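So, is this right?
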Amino acid sequence: MSYSSEMPEVPIHPHTVTAAEVVPGDLVALTPEAADRRQWCVVMHTLPESPETIRVTLRPPLGGVDHDEVLRREQEVVVAGRRLDEAAVPAVTSPRLDAVEFRDGDTVTRLRAVDPQGVEVTYRRRWGVWHLDLDSRTSGTVSDDDVRGWAADADRAGYVVRHHARPAHAPSATVPRRVVVTGLGALTPLGAGVDELWRGLLDGRHGIRELAGEEFAGLPVRVAGVVPVDPAALLPRAAARRMNRSAQFAVLAAREAWGDAGFAEGGTRESGIDPERVGVSLGAILGDASVLVGGDRRLREKGPRGVSPLTTPMTVPSQAASQVSLDLHITGEARTVTSACASGTEAIGEAIDRIRYGRVDVALAGGAEAVVTPAIMASFAAMRALSDLGTEDGVSPSRPFAKDRAGFVNGEGAGVLVLEAEEHARARGARIYCEAAGWGLSADAHHMAAPDPSGGGVALALRRALWDAGGHVVDVVHVNAHATATVEGDLAEAGALRTVLGEGPDGSVGAGVPVTALKGHLGHLQGAAGGVEAVAAVLTLHNGVVPPTVGCAELGEGIGLDVVTGAPRALPDGGDLVLSNSFGFGGHNAVLALRRV
């Protein structure tokens, strides 16, 4: 409890009087030096001690314990020039905290009670350390021993120290449910499956290749992150013919994630799960642009009869979500999110909320995209957004945050998470990778393609993800950056991360939080990027290892982040949140927050 707000504003006009002149209510400093240090006490009462001395009982003006001083009558003391109602000054003592077991979430308040204008200061315990501001890495921190020392010395030093244990949370039907990740699936330019993805990331390999097809001949850029296996060959022929390439990726990644979560092959019925309590939430920009292009070509070459009746259902971006729901017999919902390159991350965030608030118990969420087509490649090249670097030197042409970055590399693939209400997962004994703790959205409202150079929108999405996760800046141990290797995008994201994370206590840039960017390994998977990068972020948190950033030999000017390069790095212990960023054309910003369990 703070007592400073209960005290009247006391104008301090120091002047000297003799001890014999003080009366109850006077605000007294025993020496001029004490007055300079704003070390005052209220005279509670006086009592003659002898013909030459007087006993004065003093109490700090904002509350505390009494102590007596025996003063000579002619001894000079300093008074503040105004009397207080001594009955309004609380008598309080600070209990010792030697036997108290501190826990993260506890608070300690400290008030310098001898200063009439003293302000109560609050410290919160996080990661075994007491922080003055949980959202600043440069604010003051103290140890448990410091806090115990404050309490032990409080009465003598004129302070009031209070310990407040973290509140217990009673179960409530209105409290949102905790969401956890129980399964992972991916098809990427590094190969088919999560194991291929993770090994490639840790090994520092990239999956960017020269496009050999004749349809790409003559294009100014002919490198892309292409999945090295034919997804149709991994599916039954009849089923594959009814799916576009993006949907094939999505179904294969969803099957892997479903099995990884411990569910039975085949889907909800085989797993004994109510299909109405399961949902799908996938992000896509176009899905598979080649279907529409092929239909248009057949129309011109063969006329209306040459166009397949499957052209329309195989063209819509929602085909991936619908095919996953068909394949696994999921009837709860099949949602599609289209928000440019932020689509996959936003789709995961939407699924988190659907589970939190009881709409479904389980969701397959992520993104899928297959837009490595001549027209899309030509369009990106015309925007001067694509890297014109080749693969001849063995270095990835996609170089996030690097001094020699030259633009992004187009890519394809799919990444899917199985999200689940925690109580549902624990009831069936599922392995839990981590908590899907929160997410944040924002919009730049700046330009149809270019990012806001101030990074303000990105910073807002980062802060909202932290808030939604119930976290703070000091909790962040890693950031999986969007970092497409475009100059404008990389600088905007880096500036936003520095703004939100601040500097570390040692002055380290970006607060010393290790940052990695995966587009050097994979290229930019468009609407699937958020899904695949979320899979990698989950594995980073689960395994305690941060993959290196491929292609970044030297940081570009103005980045100012702790970018992990060269080799994997151990994840720091002092925190529990990983952020995964996705930003898209038109100013779409989405950030996912994952928590270690």
Q: What stands out?
A: The chain is about 25% helix and 25% strand. The first strand starts at residue 15 and ends at 18.
